[in-house]
């Protein structure tokens, strides 16, 4: 039989053990709880950081979305007065449907402004859609310029603007579709040049001259085109010429004769010397471009880098040399085969040389150009020597050739040039 005192001692030991064990458990529990709290803090901080970053990103997205919408609304508002009076605004879905979502098969060409597509509207009418890049500052400027200018111009020798579209990120101009496309495709293509007989060439020259006369003297507002060239003359199904691409055009006041600009745009080969070298343009700058175009139509040759490399002088210089030597027949396009009116051809040649004279004051006005072309009674004055672009200040001939964008088959509406590159001899 156990001693009661021994039982009490054992019981006391058990109680003490249980107390110590419970204390140890409580201590371990407290330690585990501390560890859990310490481990959970970084997770909570990470979640908070992610939430803050996502909120900031969402706020930035909302701000940019609202800004883009504000810009679009401003663009639409700026065009709304035109749409109510002159120019219809077409919806994007109908343009997508007409062009088969801008398929490659419908692409007509591409220039500095962007691509051009053929389209067919629901009623069967054919259109040409000029699609401008939403992110191109140049494209946006051209778009606004064309909408403001060409919507107010109506002439049989100017391409007709049917409407525009400003929706989402798209800016588009919708023109009448001209199936024969541009003059340069016929003029400088070895296969198609034979299709341009003399009667057709003379008609094209007169049509371009009449369109330019309208811009300079009869339209409201009066306009300087600044980029007249073969690729910017379109031909309808009857081969009637229509001047296109007014992205570089400028309105001028009747009392203002010349305008200075630090930003020279245009295409080498067609650019008047005072504009290329000094940034001075006027209606006489367009007259110079017309003169170059007339000489190209007569010769079937492009006044560009390739001609300069092959002949060591420009087409204008060759024309002047042959005129002075009374060998104008050698200048005419061989594809004509001599089948042309000598009197009409020589008159066009003569007027073309008058238009490309170096001094703007010596060049005729467009009214005189048209009169000299159609009147047998008016005797044109003797032309002075045209400018000779042969001495280059800062670039080699090969670099200059690359700058003359007229060699490319892709239509380029804008070719920024340096006004210090060329020095006439």
From TrEMBL:
InterPro entries: Prot_kinase_dom, Ser-Thr/Tyr_kinase_cat_dom, Ser/Thr_kinase_AS. PROSITE patterns: PROTEIN_KINASE_DOM, PROTEIN_KINASE_ST. It catalyses: L-threonyl-[protein] + ATP = O-phospho-L-threonyl-[protein] + ADP + H(+); L-seryl-[protein] + ATP = O-phospho-L-seryl-[protein] + ADP + H(+). This is non-specific serine/threonine protein kinase. The chain crosses the membrane at residues 43-63. Keywords: ATP-binding, Disulfide bond, Glycoprotein, Kinase, Membrane, Nucleotide-binding, Serine/threonine-protein kinase, Signal, Transferase, Transmembrane, Transmembrane helix. One of its GO terms (molecular function) is protein serine/threonine kinase activity. It comes from Zizania palustris.
């Amino acid at each position: 039989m156990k001693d009661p005192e021994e039982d009490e001692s054992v019981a006391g030991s058990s109680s003490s053990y249980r107390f110590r064990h419970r204390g140890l458990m409580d201590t371990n529990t407290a330690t585990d709880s501390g560890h859990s709290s310490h481990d959970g803090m970084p997770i909570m901080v990470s979640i908070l950081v992610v939430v803050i970053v996502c909120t900031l990103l969402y706020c930035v997205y909302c701000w940019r979305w609202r800004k883009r919408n504000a810009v679009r609304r401003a663009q639409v508002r700026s065009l709304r007065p035109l749409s109510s009076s002159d120019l219809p605004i077409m919806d994007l879905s109908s343009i997508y449907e007409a062009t088969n979502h801008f398929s490659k098969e419908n692409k007509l060409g591409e220039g500095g402004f962007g691509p051009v597509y053929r389209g067919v509207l629901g009623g069967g009418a054919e259109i040409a859609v000029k699609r401008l890049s939403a992110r191109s500052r140049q494209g946006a400027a051209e778009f606004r310029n064309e909408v403001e200018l060409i919507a107010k111009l109506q002439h049989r020798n100017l391409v007709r603007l049917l409407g525009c579209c400003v929706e989402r990120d798209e800016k588009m101009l919708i023109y009448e579709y001209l199936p024969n496309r541009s003059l340069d495709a016929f003029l400088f293509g070895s296969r198609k040049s034979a299709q341009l007989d003399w009667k057709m060439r003379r008609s094209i020259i007169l049509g371009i001259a009449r369109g330019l006369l309208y811009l300079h003297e009869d339209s409201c507002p009066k306009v300087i085109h600044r980029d007249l060239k073969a690729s910017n003359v379109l031909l309808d199904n009857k081969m009637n010429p229509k001047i296109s691409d007014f992205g570089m055009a400028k309105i001028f006041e009747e009392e203002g004769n010349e305008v200075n600009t630090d930003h020279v745009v245009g295409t080498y080969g067609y650019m008047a010397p005072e504009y290329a070298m000094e940034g001075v343009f006027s209606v006489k700058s367009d007259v110079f471009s017309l003169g170059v175009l007339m000489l190209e139509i007569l010769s079937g040759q492009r006044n560009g880098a390739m001609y300069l490399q092959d002949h060591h002088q420009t087409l204008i210089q060759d024309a002047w040399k042959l005129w002075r030597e009374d060998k104008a027949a050698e200048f005419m396009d061989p594809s004509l085969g001599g089948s042309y009116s000598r009197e009409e051809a020589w008159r066009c040649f003569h007027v073309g040389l008058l238009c490309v004279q170096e001094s703007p004051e010596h060049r005729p006005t467009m009214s005189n150009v048209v009169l000299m072309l159609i009147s047998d009674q008016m005797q044109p004055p003797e032309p002075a020597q045209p400018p000779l672009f042969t001495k280059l200040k800062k670039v080699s001939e090969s670099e200059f050739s690359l700058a003359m964008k007229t060699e490319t088959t892709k239509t380029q509406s804008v070719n920024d040039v340096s006004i210090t590159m060329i020095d006439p001899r």
